[in-house]
């Protein structure tokens, strides 16, 4: 089963790094964007997308198969990863 | 001022602010050092030691609410986690910061 995982992160945020590391260690494919590392003209649009998804300005924002998880929370990640028994 | 010197200054200042609030620096020294370094960079680039794990709005009044230490603005949320959002500060009784959850305020 293929999970769709997207991580919105800040390069300054250790919990964003932990999130990416956890996904890598768990052999889960994912996409990510470090919002603060984007060219200035792209930052606002991507940040706004993350804020809209999460309802706030906190990072990391992790989208797993359409479900939004705010913060570093492996237990919640697992709940929504189909390949790990979670998801619909 | 060098990055190391500014980190020490922030540590001195923050310690006096957060202790009366019932918080202390995380016992995870590596994490504290990394976060302080990010705050020094943010202060240099943007003018204030903003939370390294939160995005800014560009509206000063809003952004001041995530200027470290931002505990007074998020007291209920942080007290529920026993840590601030970035984890630089934890409740005074915390000895194992890795055991503390991170969840958004709507889950309090």
Main sheet summary of chain B: 2 strands, antiparallel
Residue windows where pLDDT falls under 50 for at least 5 positions of chain B: none
Instruction: Please state the oligomeric state of the protein chains shown.
Output: heterodimer
- Structural class of chain A comes to alpha+beta
The number of distinct helices of chain B, counting runs of at least 4 residues, comes to 4
Mean pLDDT of chain B: 97
What is the residue-averaged pLDDT of chain A? 93
What strand line-up does the widest sheet of chain A have?
2-1-3-4
Strand order of the largest sheet of chain B: 1-2
Radius of gyration of chain A: 12 Å
What are its keywords?
heterodimer, A: alpha+beta, four-stranded mixed β-sheet, 3 helices, 4 strands, B: mainly alpha, Ferredoxin Thioredoxin Reductase, two-stranded antiparallel ribbon, 4 helices, 6% strand
Question: Care to give the gist of this entry?
Answer:
By secondary structure, chain A is an alpha+beta fold. Chain A is built from three helices and four strands. The two termini of chain A are 12 Å apart.
Describe this structure in words.
Chain A has one domain: Glutaredoxin. In chain A, strands 2-1-3-4 form a 4-stranded mixed sheet, with helices on both faces. Chain A is an alpha+beta fold. The model of chain A has no long low-confidence stretch (mean pLDDT 93). Chain A has 3 helices and 4 strands, in the order E-H-E-H-E-E-H. The relative contact order of chain A is 0.24. Chain B is mostly helical. Chain B has a single domain (3-92), classed as Ferredoxin Thioredoxin Reductase (Alpha-Beta Complex), CATH 3.90.460. Chain B has a two-stranded antiparallel ribbon with strand order 1-2. In chain B, helix 1 (3-18) crosses helix 2 (29-46). The longest helix of chain B has 18 residues, at 29-46. The termini of chain B are far apart.
Topology:
The complex is a heterodimer of chains A (88) and B (108).
Chain A: E1 5-9, H1 14-25, E2 31-34, H2 40-54, E3 61-64, E4 67-70, H3 74-80
Parallel strand pairs in A: 1-2
Antiparallel strand pairs in A: 1-3, 3-4
Chain B: H1 3-18, E1 23-25, H2 29-46, H3 60-63, H4 75-81, E2 89-91
Antiparallel strand pairs in B: 1-2
Helix pairs in contact in B: 1-2
